[in-house]
Amino acid sequence: MRRSLLAGPVLEVAPRLLGMVLRSTTDEGTVAVRLTEVEAYDGPNDPGSHAYRGQTARNAVMFGPPGFLYVYFTYGMHFCMNVVVGPDSTPSAVLLRAGEVIEGVELARLRRNQSVPMKTDRDLARGPARLCVALGIGREGNGVDLLAKNSPIALLDGVGFDGVPATGPRVGLREAADRPWRFWIPNDPTVSPYRPHVPKKRA
DNA sequence: GGAAAGATTTTCT
DNA sequence: GAAAATCTTTCCT
Asked: Which of A10, A54, A121, A161 is the most buried (most CB within 10 A)?
């Protein structure tokens, strides 16, 4: 995996991530997933992006060079992760929404079953927060260089994906959710089910 | 300094 | 289909 491959415009890079492999190693063991669903966020031009209103302590990683991991905490209980892409200092990133566990299935199953028992293997990493749980990635994953030698979390070329990616609206956003910047591998069972966003009521 | 909503998941009716 | 769980960040007074 070359870093230059991630340095292009986010809308070009995002679909290329499909089929690539993300491998995470901790003292518990190793889990790897083949990415089946991603979502693009285009920094300052994108009202749905965390970087839309400028750099903060939380999103600082997005403003750095491509190939780093941006992990954020949301809904009081979940982590989600992004791969920073684009040229240096352009705060674009790709949300990793789902994947197929191809290595360390037993460990992934163990982690997921700690909160919810009796999950089927297809659901192990089917959704952005589930993906983080399966890989054992939390706050400490923020800012990790995915392309560094011996990195505990690494992005690998994998088998790639030769077909035409499916595209559709993004999920869970209040702003600009309609932009067709979500990409997934057609007919893959590990792609998360689409749920239209419902804004929470204001008191 | 406080309120509101959130790039979600799970469970219950 | 609705609602809860739970805490960080952002936005407004």
From this structure: A10
Nucleotides of C under 7 A from a protein CB: 5-11
> Could you give the CA distance from residue A42 to residue A44 in angstroms, rounded to a whole number?
6
Distance A77 CA to B5 C1' (A): 15
Report pTM: 0.93
Residue ranges of the domains in chain A?
A: 3-184
Q: Compute the distance between CA of residue A92 and CA of residue A11 in angstroms, rounded to an integer.
A: 10
pLDDT at A199: 53
User: CATH for A3-184, among 3.20.20.70, 3.10.300.10, 1.10.10.10, 3.30.565.10?
Assistant: 3.10.300.10
**Which single residue is written with the structure tokens 């063991």?**
A29
